[in-house]
Amino acid sequence: MWFFSKRSAPINLGVELVVEVHNHVLPGVDDGARTMQDALQMMFFWAEMGYQKVIATPHQNTSMNAPEYRLQEAEAKLHAQLQEQELPIFLTSAAEYLIEPELRKQLDSLRTFGPKRYVLIELGFWMPPIGWEQVVFELQQRDYTPVLAHPERYSFADKQTMKKWFEQGYLLQVNLLSLGGAYGREAQAKAEYLLEKGWVHFLGSDMHHPSQIPLVAQALTHKAVRRHIPKLLNPTLL
Fold first, then answer.
1. Most buried among 68, 73, 121, 216, using CB within 10 Å?
2. Where do the domains of the chain lie?
3. Contact 232, 19 (CB under 8 A)
């Protein structure tokens, strides 16, 4: 079994982040890990970095909407492999929901994480969905706590927009892959800006495949990550 060597990243900030909150590690359910081998490589990496828990967040939208039994089956199979490998890391799962009309049909049965029923949501990358703020309000009315995934990746989200979201009380989750430069300089700069402003509540990788491990490892050495870890909510999810 291949795994990432500790020697390649001496600053293992996973020890301080404790919980990985956004990824697509469940094999064969969305555009993430294709095989069990892919999933195990990703899990080995997080264990090597010092994480104690991984919360899988498979896509749930009209184009990628695996039924509940498939999600549970994929999680159970991966969990069994982790036990067989004696890997000291805990696996659980939630989901990443795209704000779209179909979501309203699922509002009573969303997959959440953490004690405050956090639910990970994403917007369109080029423009926000019409009425998305009303959907967020409806989630809050149902006692969910929405977490906005990767605001730095939305091309329409400038500094004033992100400031408004934070001031309105939205919880924001930034991708380590953004800090590692995976999506270009603009997304990286916005991720750094959000961290420096103290507007980030959760850091997650958004890793889809083992090929992204080097960029996530690079991001885990980012000086802004170390400075702002004490402000993050990741450790509260253990």
1. 216
2. 13-237
3. no
Model pTM? 0.94
Element of type H or E holding 136 = helix 132-141
Collapse the DSSP code of 3 into the 3-class scheme (helix H, G, I; strand E, B; otherwise coil) and give the result: coil
Contacts by 213-216 with C-beta closer than 8 Å and gap 24+? 213/4, 213/41, 213/42, 213/45, 215/176, 215/177, 215/180, 215/181, 215/182, 216/45, 216/176, 216/177, 216/180
Query: By C-alpha distance, which of 24, 169, 3 is closest to 95?
Result: 24
Torsion of CA 207, 224, 118, 106, to 10 degrees: -40
- CA atoms of 138 and 225, how far apart (whole Å): 32
Residues 6+ apart with CB under 8 A from 144: 110, 112, 117, 118, 119
Q: In this structure, which topology does domain 13-237 adopt according to CATH?
A: TIM Barrel (3.20.20)
Tens place of pLDDT per residue across the chain (238 aa): 444 444 444 457 899 999 999 999 999 999 999 999 999 999 999 999 999 999 999 999 999 999 999 999 999 999 999 999 999 999 999 999 999 999 999 999 999 999 999 999 999 998 998 999 999 999 999 999 999 999 999 999 999 999 999 999 999 999 999 999 999 999 999 999 999 999 999 999 999 999 999 999 999 998 889 899 999 999 999 9
Contacts of 30 (CB under 8 A, 6+ apart): 24, 58, 59, 64, 66
Residue at 178: amino acid letter = S
